[in-house]
Amino acid sequence: MNDWIYSDKVKQHFLEPKNWLMGEENQFDFNARGLVGNVVCGDQMLMLLKIEDDVIVDVRWKTYGCASAIASTSVLSEIVKGKTLDEALAVSPEEIAENLGGLPKHKFHCSVLGDQALTKAIEDYRGDQK
Amino acid sequence: MRRIYLDNNATTPLSENARRSMRAIIELFGNASSMHKDGRLARQAIEKARANVAALIGAEPSEIIFNSGGSEANNTVFNILAERDFGNRNEIIVSAIEHPCVLASAQKLEKKGWKVWHAPVDEKGKLRISEFNKVLNEKTALVSVMLANNEIGTVQDIAKITQLAQKAGALMHTDAVQAVSKIAVDVKDLAVDYLTMSAHKIYGPKGAGALFVRTGAPFLPLIVGGHQENGRRAGTDSTLGVVGFGLAAKMAKNMIEKYQKIAKLRDELQRQILKKIPFTTVNGDGSLPNTLNVSFAGAEGESILLALDEVGVEVSTGSACASGDGKPSHVLMAIKADPELAHGSIRFSFGLDNDMKDVNYVMRVLPEIVWKLRAISTVKIGDKNE
What we know:
The structure holds 2 protein chains of 2 kinds. Chain A contains 5 helices and 3 strands; from the N terminus they run H-E-E-E-H-H-H-H. In chain A, a hairpin with a 2-residue loop joins strand 2 and strand 3. The model of chain A has no long low-confidence stretch (mean pLDDT 92). By secondary structure, chain B is of the alpha/beta class. Chain B folds into 2 domains: 237 residues, Aspartate Aminotransferase, domain 2; 122 residues, Aspartate Aminotransferase, domain 1 (Alpha-Beta Complex), CATH 3.90.1150.10. In chain B, 42% of the residues lie in helices and 14% in strands. In chain B, the strands form 3 sheets. Chain B has a 7-stranded mixed sheet with strand order 2-8-7-6-5-3-4, with helices on both faces. A 4-stranded antiparallel sheet of chain B has the order 9-10-13-12. In chain B, strands 1-11 form a two-stranded parallel sheet. Chain B is globular. The model of chain B has no long low-confidence stretch (mean pLDDT 95). The interface between A and B is medium-sized, with 26 and 23 residues.
């Protein structure tokens, strides 16, 4: 029986987050960067993408925030790896939450924030390309 | 797995003595208001409990009104103002760090036209007496300041605040839910008109509490329609809860020395955290012996709490993420301006069952948890702190 406060998936991604960036940003070779949220509000997310031929080939992230925020960024990093930029942009907060086995209402903004970080990184990349 | 409970300000377990007293009377079903034997037996058990609760705080038994707990007691005090004519007195002073049930009760009165002042506290959580004096005046009907704060454990000088309040002709209430049993609480020394207590913070059952009302102080019941508690609180007496509360109160009479020993554990945890985990600050002044509230820069409180829970350590946080309303603790916001530190706060509240092994275990797991969350975090600590 699951007696945890959130879903097992959230727990899994919180306790063993995937693709997070150890150390400084220069430890990862990226060409797209999205930073959203702020510490005053309680959560901030940084998404770093390595894009080759319009495909996200690698991802690293950092998150300041609660378990759901960490889990949202972690699961998102797994979702978008290997996706084209258009495919990645089509990922919705609902899809992030679904992949986490659902988020409680008051934690849904965590998935929204993850989605915003991703979008910002891709927009940042496309802006540079123009 | 080993479970270490360090959330005793949230609630305490039922003590063996309280449990035994409740088990002994669980078959005593009589309504304490009934005149027959079953009723009289229940009445006797309740009055015995009342004597114990009164003795714990130096009150007369007739000054104790049993109820459902701290929130009801606090609501009851403010309800007196709502329903009684206080003439020209239409102002209330509460401290900025009161329990939400006091703040919400004051807000209800504000909507009815009362003027509510939120007296500020200093960076340790102590009421700023000079600021308090500025808002205290001949229109103040009630002053409500908690004895010990549940989140940061700061203890107020209630005797002094009462003196000032009563000199201005105001009534004085203190929420002593966290203070009772841990530090000396005597209504004669404090000289308050109203004092709130709760059973489940002193190893008694949940759902039982009491309001002390000084003989002669204005009173009106919150729950009406019955003569129970001398017409001061309607509703069939909760024999089981009251008896457990009474026994807990009896045992609590001798707890202050035990809490002095607990303070040593708390102090040791504080010393080790500050020594081994950088960019860490202590919230509050440590005057309540069992409470340690610490902020870890760059790591969010709910994450620390859940990671600690995974390894068997139970604590609480003032983080916005854990609050449900998206706001960081109003207490931490009142003592310092930096919301980031409020988000990263963890409260360790010790109980009588803790020992040095618990402290050592926490220190085996906590530094790594904070380290990892800081490594994952976007916040670069050291940039702005220290």
